[in-house]
Amino acid sequence: MADSRGFHSSGGDGRAQTLAGLILSQTDGGKDIVERMVDFMYGRAEGCRVSDSLSAAKELMDRAWGRPSAASPVAAEDASEGAEDAADTLRQMIIAALSAETERGEP
User: Taking the mean position of all CA atoms in its chain, how far away is CA 30?
Assistant: First the structure.
């Protein structure tokens, strides 16, 4: 039976039987993975190339918002409204990331 986080256990020992459960248990719920990808995205990882940075940013966006679907015709007013919402969300994320870096004393 799955617990509230989707882990499946065998018997009463509570061991995660799914790969996702194992990864979550070993990476602070996935936080370590995201932090590493953010380091690559900002070029803070040793030996990080521009292509690594772009790849990390793309993976983070795909995980956060899903992969883009095939383009379909959209009315101009619908596109403009969606773009404003997306821009506001992106602004808020950038401000939060910069604030977090400042609090940690990072440049």
Answer: 9
CB atoms < 10 A from the CB of 44, how many?
A: 14
Contact assessment for residue 53 and residue 41, using Cβ atoms and an 8 Å cutoff:
yes
Task: Please report the DSSP string for 42-78 in residue order.
Answer: TT-STT--HHHHHHHHHHHHHHHH----------HHH
Q: Are 43 and 53 in contact (CB under 8 A)?
A: yes
pTM score over 0.70: no
**Site of tokens 């440049």:** 107
Q: What is the pLDDT of residues 61-84, one digit of tens each?
A: 888 888 877 766 655 555 566 677
CA–CA dist 105, 69 (Å, integer): 39
Question: Which CA distances in Å does 16 have to 2, 60, 64?
Answer: 9, 25, 24
Residue reference for tokens 């996935």: 30
